[in-house]
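Record Lipase, 471 aa.
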Amino acid sequence: MRKWVRAALLGALGAAELLVSAAVHLGYAFYVFGTAVAADVAASLVKGLMAASGGGGVAKDVAVGSEDEAAAVLDGAVPPIVLVHGIFGFGKGRLGGLSYFAGAEEKDDRVLVPDLGSLTSVHDRARELFYYLKGGRVDYGEAHSAACGHARFGRTYERGHYPLWDEHHPAHFVGHSAGAQVIRLLQQMLHDGEFAGHATTSERWVLSVTSLSGALNGSTRAYIDGVRPEDGRSLRPVCLLQVCRVGSVLYHWLDLPWLKRYYDFGFDHFGMSRRLVGIRGLADVLIAGTRGPFATGDWILPDLTIQGAARINARLRTFPGTFYFSYATRRTARTWRGTTVPSGLLRIHPLLFLRALQMCRWRYPAGAPPPYEGYRDEDWEDNDGALNTFSMTHPRVPDEHPSVPVEDDGRPLRPGIWYYRIVEADHMAFVINRRRGGVQFDLVYDSIFRNCRRLCLPDRPAPPPTLPDQS
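=>
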């Protein structure tokens, strides 16, 4: 009887936690969406009023620059800085005038903010990023597309946003959250020459990589949200990620052009539109699970597990001609009893507080094989509410890459080494809401942009890539 009561209590607590988590996440999503709509409506009203009054000017703070004008600035004389968003993120042109990076792109006149799939896999996003910059029709790769059950080709960029991009005209890349892994995989693909029709690509097209709260080694939150730790891929029947799965599938199935122009999860190449598959196709995706990204595992969450990160990292290298920087965030602290807890209720985003607490206490299931040799639960306790601080400093899993903790920005920098700094902030401090980030927001982005701009284009030899540190 006692076991039944205990099971019932645990079930009730689990259901309550899921309801609260789903309500908080959906509420925040609608808040961001509503804020963007309100800003667009306000801007349209201002324009309409000025036009009615006969004014020929444009309201202050209303963006007027076109992509052609922006591209003209990127003449290759100064390497551009490419800001790559994370999961559920968006680039320039989505959500109206809202900036994922909270306006940080305005700190430099040579910045690009690509719009990539917000829930697509690291592989698919890396392919999209290449063609966004270079131009042409997105090619996800013949073998990958066949294995994952989606179309080989995606959208076409008639003109790349940085068509000059090559070894002599490289770029700086800054990735937030999952965006950091997208950049690393893109650089490896450039080194391996994986883009058809571009025979001369190399890792030297990337001058620097900056990871901001980057998912370099995965996250235990993926398991808390619903991925089974036993395989790092399948989902529990009832979990927050199931809500995400159903919502994103219905979003793409409805295929409302005006809505998708505003925000897009990025699954068009899976062909889930109602115009293509009808009701039966929707049932195949949602109920039978026989098609779509969630059937094949070709979406972002499996890549954010520790196993998924280890699988990706197994082929990625730290290259000797590239500068690497990492800003790892932490919003937890140790108590006098040695336990890890969130460091202040008011300093953690409401979206993240519950997960920060859960990540402090989460333990890998005893019956499941560890995700890598030497795994310890205590290494993964510190977190920022979305990612573990241990995961964000530098690539560690399955092999350790060369790294140096940085306390002083004045020390000389060398390529081929991950310079990392731990910042006391949560995962949302440097995106969406600049006011919430406060002074620290500007300090971090000023440091990132300063690092990029003080790096000249060196004489970059082409030795073998730096292997993970075996010492």
